[in-house]
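Sat 14:20. Reprocessing the chain from the morning session after the first attempt stalled halfway. Input below, unchanged.
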Amino acid sequence: MKTLLALFFLFSANAFSTSEPAATPAAAPTIGIDELSLDRTIAPCTDFYQYACGGWLKSVQIPNDLPAWSRGIYSLREEARAELHAILEKYAKSNVPDDDPDRERLGNYFFACMDEKEAEKTSMRSLKAEFARIDAIKSPEDLSKKIADLHLKGVDVLFGFGPDQSCKDSSQMVGNADQGGLGLPDPDYYLKDEGKNPAIRTDYQEHLVRMLSLAGFPASKAKAGAKTIFALETSLAKGFLSRTERRDPKKLCNLLGRAGLATRAPIFKWQTYYAGLGLPEVQSINVAVPDYFNKLNEVLTSTPLADLKVYLKWHVLDRMAGAMGKKIVEQNFAFVSKAFSGQKEIEPRWKRCVSSTERAMGEPLGRAYTRLKFNEESKTKARVLISGIESAFGQELEEVEWMDEVTKKKATEKLHALVNQIGYPDKWRDFSQLTISRKDFFANALAASRYNSNYHLNKIEKPVDRTEWEMFPQTVNAYYSGENNKMVFPAGILQYPFFDPGNPVAVNFGGIGMVMGHELTHGFDDEGRQFDQVGNLTQWWTEKTEKAFNERAACLVKQYDGYTPIDDLHVRGKLTLGENIADNGGIKLAYNAFMKIKGDVGTEQKGFTQEQLFFLGFAQSWCSLKRPELERQHLITDPHSPPKFRVNGPISNFPAFAKAFSCPADSAMVRKPACEVW
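Finished this time. Tokens:
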């Protein structure tokens, strides 16, 4: 799956604020481009991102309770959260009638979260009960059973296990065992000394001590426990594949089955674990990173049970920190803010409770959202735009010179088999068996995690449901699924500035059109191209064409490696390759699709030609500010380039941009040699 932007979500359950008020971002115009966002002191051919967004960048501050702000994704996300808040406030009032079948459980969950005093009172009691169950572990069988219980509750310990489509038969679901169990977001933080990693490791160990102490560990045991946890996680990190390595789907396709996994980590009681998940007879298992389970076996063999218990307790505490009392919430926020987000304030409680409710029951909440918010006119117009984008890619396939006829024919078949889903799912998940209390937020969060885990695990060894969505309708994002050969555009992103039925056509094509072209290109990027028209991982490219593709992709790797957003960290060209291919291909497809209908619209608006409006609509949808801490994290973990380079990178390779703005050949926005895959 590919997404446009990895959003950073921070949740804690108790309010925390400083005396400094949050900045209020400037209001966006209703339609079209925003002339106030322009910076006319710089030439578009020198730095187009600055030209299109410079006025906005100077006038807007990041709200204190957020790690970033943007004209597009972050602002729409906040608008959606405010709309979800209004729905949940209504549902939390038990005497307000509504025909929504999930009204009561949604309202109860939100009510329990918002009842800070009750949550504070019950959270520590619930945490201690979880700790007691961990202390009761006496044998390897007990440990395996408890790992299954924690996985069902959404606690990431030792490894991950869940459903996935078979890489060799995309019509079937299998179990997928994968690396996991770290407290920091990437193994690089444990193993590499670049940038701020050493300081983050020190801060993390201090954070562990403070959190364990707040959870009731005596001072000496908290310090010892922190050392134990960090050492164990560091050992696990040594078995991880890097994010760049994981971008090759062939490396993650290892259908070893139940027996094959057991040979990798024989010390673990797999039968007990499977029974704990409710899958005692499961046989079909993909082992994403086989060597990781060799490392896991070493760790389990050499680590005393008492140390493993400390590790498990920490991850329960870390997972449920947002449902705990004020001191734990504040400490959790302080560490995350310092190391990864840079936020000045924790989000107000209502925001955190909306986000928590969304994670627990996102689809039911999305159904309520789309009933009130989604405009069916947007769905109709979006389909017209997508049709134009697909037609433009079909033309690209006909004309591309480096692809031979055999591969081109199969690529065309894949394009014609592509499925699009827009707005919201055709069928909604059933949550009728989930019981939610108005009293115990901690218990509700675990109950929802268990309910969702059981739902997903129940898919294993069953046919794939290709109609199911991997995002909620209210999500401000989109994705392409290689395994299903489909694109999904939730209602949340079909809004200004990406799209508005009243926008000039050029602006819509530059905004949501580029998004659509981006997602379609993912089907033919360095990862997506390895899946055939039905989603099987197979070699359908000839050797000659594959070599030509890789040569063009290498040009983009070199280009983006050269970008340095922060003085000691550069963009990782290999990590971001798929997204960069999609960005470069997406802008070209959207532009070519727009040019086919350009004659049906006006020739000029606001002093700009239609071609210029297209590029401005594209760039202004990505105007963004990030705090340095978040920027650093994204450069390590995010497969997307920073917004500035998502704009300037593709247009510098695209001759149509230089023509639209009459850029001289030696302009900064005219790259030589230009990189082009699609």
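Confidence is low (pLDDT under 50) at residues 1-24.
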